[in-house]
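Input (structure):
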């Protein structure tokens, strides 16, 4: 993903396409840039890409069904990289966006093995686009997001053939394939776990009275069980989110938590090795899924990568599940292991 500020300089270059008297003054401008973007991608044989100019937060998830879902604040892409390709633009010609977002989605089967080549190809596409519209490269921020999704208890349900990964840092993997990442790159590794709040879980701490804090006992039970299991396995950075907002974990020099409409932005600095656990919930609102978050610090990275960190996560979750009498062969606990890097194009 590339984020490009919509500067006055860029608008001036294309002033002939912007009609301030029109109800959609930026329509032709956005369409011109989108057409150029897709032409560049076609020349590099990039199958799935999207031009976005609507100020919405972009998320991508694996799904057996191809779908793009939009809300007021989000643009969610669901797809299976083995089968789904796409090339679309998303913009409102009547609104001046704050930034342009160029999104590239990987296709194929061996995504991790081919990720360095995909990174190289998409970076070339971004560079070509910036050069052709006449902007400085340093203004562009590139992010590379990768994640693995799996049910922690898949084997209990008869699913076989799970693949083991060493979870090496992305920069190390890319360097091994001849792709250099700038020294100024920021990186973050973390896991988000979807914990379902079904009838059985609700009954573990069922309140006898309807009060403004009806679900406080339930959330406390889950949070205390989770944090205890995590700390017992030497995991000291994370969060419990049960307020209906979508948690977005990102690198931040100064750690922060910002609620913004549908989103909850969680900023972490991996240099801080013992940040503790953040808990956010509404005691009077029952959610159907609680997000349990683990964030890796620099201490969680070994010479081999983050394999030990993942093992600690899985051990913590199994201990946590046992405390709550989780029904492993019937109930699902989805784990999404994320690796992110981000740097300025130079």
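Output (sequence):
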């Amino acid at each position: 993903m590339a984020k490009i500020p919509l500067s006055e300089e860029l608008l001036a270059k294309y002033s002939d396409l912007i009609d301030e008297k029109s109800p959609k003054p930026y329509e032709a401008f956005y369409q011109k840039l989108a057409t150029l973007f897709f032409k560049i991608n076609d020349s590099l044989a990039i199958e799935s890409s999207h031009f976005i100019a609507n100020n919405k937060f972009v998320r991508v998830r694996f799904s057996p069904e191809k779908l793009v879902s939009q809300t007021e604040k989000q643009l969610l892409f669901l797809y299976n990289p083995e089968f789904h390709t796409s090339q679309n633009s998303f913009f409102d010609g009547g609104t001046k966006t704050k930034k342009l977002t160029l999104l590239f989605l990987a296709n194929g089967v061996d995504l991790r093995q081919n990720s360095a080549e995909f990174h190289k190809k998409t970076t070339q596409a971004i560079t070509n686009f910036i050069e052709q519209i006449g902007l400085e490269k340093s203004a562009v921020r590139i992010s590379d997001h990768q994640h693995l999704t799996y049910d922690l208890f898949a084997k209990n349900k008869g699913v076989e053939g799970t693949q083991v990964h060493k979870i090496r840092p992305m920069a190390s993997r890319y360097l091994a394939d001849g792709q250099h990442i700038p020294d100024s790159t920021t990186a973050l590794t973390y896991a988000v776990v979807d914990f379902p709040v079904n009838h059985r879980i609700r009954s573990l701490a069922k309140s006898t009275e309807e009060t403004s804090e009806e679900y406080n006992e339930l959330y406390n039970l889950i949070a205390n069980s989770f944090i205890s299991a995590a700390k017992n396995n030497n995991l000291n950075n994370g969060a419990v989110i049960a307020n209906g907002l979508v948690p977005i974990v990102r690198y931040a020099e100064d750690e922060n938590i910002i609620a913004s409409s549908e989103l909850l932005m969680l900023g972490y600095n991996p240099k801080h090795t013992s940040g503790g656990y953040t808990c956010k919930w509404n005691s009077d609102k029952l959610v159907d899924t609680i997000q349990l978050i683990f964030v890796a610090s620099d201490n969680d990275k070994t010479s081999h990568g983050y394999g030990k960190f993942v093992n600690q996560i899985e051990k913590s979750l199994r201990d946590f599940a046992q405390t709550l009498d989780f029904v492993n062969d019937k109930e699902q606990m989805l784990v999404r292991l994320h690796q992110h890097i981000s740097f300025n194009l130079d």
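Notes: Residues 115-133 form the longest helix (19 residues). The first strand starts at residue 2 and ends at 5.
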